[in-house]
Every structure is written in C-alpha cells, then in structure tokens.
C-alpha cells in the first residue's frame, strides 16, 4: 500500500521550481496578489524568454533555451540562478544525476540566502530521487520557507510528505498534505490520500476524519474524467471499509454510487454481491455476481472470482444442481482462461502496450499488467525513453532544413561575392591612387603661382584681368591719369589683392585638408580592398565550411544517439518480457488454484449427493424391510 | 470488453485503492539487472539536450544571422487593467507576426516573463514597426491600441521591446515600444 501511495505521489505534477531570487518577479509568492508594484519585469531578454517557457510549463523548451543562452553567455546577471533553475528543470524531466552535476558546479559560498534555499530544495529532490532519504531530509531542512516562493514551498511540502510516507509517518504526512493549496486535481489526490492514510489509524477520531475526507472526494462535482475516476475510487474505498466493519447497508450506499462503466465498476459489483451475501440475501448477491459471471473478459480477476461466487450463492440457496452446473462452468472457464494466457504468452501481446496511443483503450488484462509495479516501472521507463526518442526524431527532421538554409545562404553569399569582384575590377585601388596623385600634383602647381587663376572664381578672375589692364594703361599713360585717380586705383588694387589673397589661402587650406582626408580614405579603401580580396581568396571554395562541418557533426551525433536509444529500449523490453512471464505464471497458478477449488466443490457436492442418495436408498430399504416385516 | 483512456488506467494503477490492495505489502522497486540502464538513460538524455541546444543555436544562426537579425519581445506587468487577447506586428508595412494569447501565456507574462514574439532578417537602414493589440480593457470594454516606432538597423542584432503597463493614475493600460540595444 505504501508503495502504491508513493507511486501515486510520483504521478503528482510537480509545480515548477520558480525561477526567482527576485521573489518580486513572481506573484506566485502570493497567488492572489494583483498589486502592480509587486511585479517587476526582467531586464535580461534572454532570461525573460527562458522564464516564458518555464512558467508555461514547457519545461523542455525552457531548458533548451536556457542551455543555449548560457552557452552564449547571455544570462548575466542571472547566471547562478539559471544554474539552479536548470537543475530544477532537469529534475522535472527525471534527470536527478545530471541535475546534481549541475548543482555541484555552483560555488555555494557566493549564494544569497534565497538562492541557497532554492539550491537546498533542488538537492533534496536529487537525494530523494536517489533514495537517500536522510540526505534529502537534511537538505530539505536547509531550504527556508521564508526564502522560498509559493510554488517552491509547495514542492517542499510535497517532498516532506513523501519523506514521512517513506518512514510510515502517515499522521505527519496527512497533516502536511492538508496545507497543500489548490493546484487542480492535486488537492483531490491529497484528500484521497489523506483519507486513506487516516483510515490506517486505530483511533476513532482519525478514522472518522479519514472517512470524512474520502466522502468529500466522493461528493466531488467532477469536471474531468480524472475526477470521475477519483470519485469512484473514493466511493469504493468507503464501501469496502464499511463492508470490513460488517455494515453491509452502508457499504451498499457507497458502492451503488459508482459509475457502471468506470474503472472500478467490476470491483463495485463484486463487493455489492458480498454485501448482500454478508446479510444472507443470497438471491440478490447472485443477481450482482451473475452480471460478472456473464461477462466475456475471462482474464479479469473480479470476473474469475464470480465464477466461484455464483455457484456458492446457488449452494446457499439450496439449488445444488445449479451450484454443480456453476462449478462445472467455472472449471471450463478456468481452462479457457489458461489457454488464453498461453496464447498471450506466445503472441507477446504486452507489446501492444508499447505502441498504443494514449487515446486508445486497454483491455482489462492490460490494466492488470499495468497494475503490476515492476512491469509498470519498466513500461514507464520505456515510454519515457520513447518520448525522448520522439524528440530526437523531431531534431532529425530539422537537419535537411538546416542543409537547405545553408545552401541558400551559400548561394546568396556567392552572388554578393560576384558583385564585390566586379566592383573591385571596375574600381581598382591603383586607379584611385593615380587620380589622387594627379590631383595632388595639380594642387602643388597651383600653390606656387602668385595668383592662381584656376582657383579663382570666374567673375573674380575677370575683375582681376581688368585691374591688370588698368594698371598697364596707367603705366603706359601716366599723364592721362591724375594723382587722385592713381591713388584710388592703388587702393582698389590693394583691396582686391587682399581679397584674392584671403580667398586663395582659404582655398588652399580647404584643398589641403580635403586632400589629406582623401588620402586617409584612400588608405582605408586600400586596406578594406586588401581584406576583401583576402577573404574572397580564403573563402571562395567553401565559405560555409565550418557550418557545414557542424551540421555533419551534429547529424552523426544524432545517429549515434538514435542507436543508443534503440539498444536501451531493447534492454527495457527484455525486462518487461521477464516481468510479463512472471505475471502470466502467477495468473496460471491462481487459475490452477481456482480450478482446484471448483474441483473440490464439485467433489463435495457429488459426495453429498451420493451420500444423500445412499441415505435415501438405505431409508427406502428400511421401509421395504419394515413393510415386509409387517 | 470495456476500453478506457490510457491516462485513466495510469491513475488506476497509481491510486489503486485498498479494495484490492489493502493487504498488499510494499514491494521493492525492480532492480536494474544490468546495473546501468538508468545511467545509460541519463547519459542519452543529457546528450540529447546538448544536441538540441547546438541545433537550436545553429538554426538561429543560419535563419537569422546576427548581422541582419531583428527580434521583437513583449513584456507586461500585472495586467489588471487589460486582458490581452491578441497582438499583430507590422514591419515596413508588412504583417510579420500575430499571436493569440491563452491563459497560460498571460499567466506567464504576468509573472514577469518575456515573450519572444518575432525574429526576422532586415537590411541595415531605417525601418518602421507598428504594433496592434486587442483585448478587454477597464470596465470590460473591448480595447484596441496601436503604437509605432522608427528604428535604425545597424550592424549586429537589433532587439525591440513592446511593453504593456497599467497606468494607475489614468486607470488605462499603456502600450509602448522601444529599442533594447
């Protein structure tokens, strides 16, 4: 029972270890919190992106994003927090050993109190998975409630409860479970488990509390199939408990509420029969057991039980012939069932469980296989690795796409390369160098001219020539010009010379500067051209060689992994087959026992019938002799 | 013969009640006969995670090289004034992305996460992004809002961040977009 309960716990969806040192980023600290100031957005986009998937419960996606961004060193300043978070995600994905390795890489001394508590919680989960319960407990004690957020406290509570279960401390476990907040069906599971746990205790108070909790689950207004199933389970538990106390009427009240097409409906029918049988209402008991007796699923143990129960009821009702027929029928059905088991053994029909999609149904025999903890364990591990294989298959599908993208990029690159080559041919650096040299020479020539005509604007140049003409006229005809005019001309010539000089200097300075810039740019251009040339020469044959090699490497890794998974699956199948053989053996043995019981009952009935007949014979003989005497 | 969904069968196995198992003694977990099946399984999974990570990075590099990559992210605060329903993104007059929000997405955003909304390739130069959001605003009224931003794409990755913030003073949600780097 303890194992079954622990198994149930393992089915609990573990709320994610919240990614927060900054408790403020997570309103889950108080789920009802709607105050605006409580939520701070994260400043690191990549960290925020990881959390987006994690909070959506897409743990695998979150882990891949986290690993990728960590490899790119893009998670600062959340590096340590990310490491702990990665460990929690790995734990959620069922990889405690890998999580442990990850945690060991974190320097513990540098952690804040909050991060240390998160780390301690993760370590507790690691040790619990390794079944080192004392270490798990010790780590769990280091995870301080005050430093953990709401969902982390939930995980801590669940883990603590599991540890109590493990030590058979059901009362403490039950107490802790009541503190678990509403998380979908988790609360109903907790109540169901609580109820069962409390029924274990001998004291009346716990017993009543346990029944109340089970009744609460039984009274659920179900929203989904899972809740319907849980409700039926609770009713069955209550019914059987009442039956155990000899309260047949109360038991019936619980059992009659179970759905007819549910998972435990056959259990309920069988128990209903026993409840009437307890009260010696064999006819009614027969009515229920007959329902099972007539069902075709001859490998269902509840139906097999009815094979003996029906003739038993007949016997109790004094219908000895009916009882005899029933036992004979049971014998024949038992032989059929054994044959069927042999067939199943040959057909290896357990393999159907490997390929069935979750939406398809399972036979009751398959349900029985799954109810075997060992078989279920191997099956679960097989399914787990199969799930990972599907992930690998999806990755394999991305390889052709990557190759295509690479090819596309390559084509685009080559097109651009061609354009660059043409440009380089049309614009060789030597041409530019020559042009610069010519320009420089021209400039140097202009610099040495007294008044460089070429650098004067056209209008000013015309004016200058006019001044020169006037000067030559004054020089040639000095008497035609008076002193005042000569003075004015000199002044005009001076102003103009000064203007031209200034203009010339400005122009010279500008040209000098421009040429200097041109020289720098030309040098840069030369350098770039040389680099481009080098790159063109280096990469012309295979510009995407590194990426090509990377794809090939990853593809090879993918193939190797695929092979490893196949090998592992075969090993797990081997184990399942072994368990399957054991289960079939047990079932054959149980059927043999059933056959023996039927045989014994047949023998007893025959004996009593012979006995009755001989008594009747003796009685009739006595009567005859008495008559003769008379 | 009855058929049940697989998940229910699992519940049945896990929660198998004491009706049939009351007296069942705890059985030890099956031993690992080869001693290393668990280890093998862990190694495979770890390698697969690494492989997935490397392929993810390679794919990102090939699809959106850093030199041309433009990424748009969305974040929101408490969101008590606005129930985001959908978002549409237009860059240079072309719709490039749209998203319909589920409860899970919204819960995740409200807890402080950042949604990677879009990644694409754009040449260097000036571009314009327009964001349209729809949802239910204050007083349960249908709410539509748009905001735009002109940004200059230079060498290297460009990240833009859309923010939805509750403005307590005006009791209205505020939509904004800004460049991240």
Description:
The complex is a heterodimer of chains A (630) and B (181). Chain A has a domain at 427-543. Chain A has helices at residues 2-10, 45-55, 59-71, 79-92, 96-104, 113-129, 133-142, 150-166, 170-178, 186-200, 204-218, 225-244, 248-255, 265-278, 282-293, 301-316, 320-347, 352-355, 364-371, 373-426, 429-448, 458-476, 483-539, 545-629. Chain A is 77% helix and 0% strand. In chain A, helix 17 runs antiparallel to helix 24 (545-629). Mean pLDDT of chain A is 82; it is low at 1-39. Chain A has 630 residues and is mainly alpha-helical. Chain A is elongated. Chain A contains 24 helices and no strands. With 181 residues, chain B is an alpha+beta fold. Chain B folds into two domains: 5-63; 68-179, Immunoglobulin-like. Helix content of chain B is 27%, strand content 40%. Chain B has four helices and eight strands, in the order H-H-H-E-E-E-H-E-E-E-E-E. Chain B has helices spanning 6-14, 18-21, 37-63, 103-110; strands spanning 69-76, 83-91, 94-100, 115-121, 125-136, 142-153, 158-167, 172-179. Chain B has a four-stranded mixed β-sheet with strand order 4-1-7-8, with no helix packed on it. In chain B, strands 3-2-5-6 form a four-stranded antiparallel β-sheet, with no helix packed on it. Classes of the chains: A mainly alpha (630), B alpha+beta (181). Chains A and B meet through helix 1, helix 2, helix 3, helix 10 and helix 12 of A and helix 1, helix 2, helix 3, strand 1 and helix 4 of B.
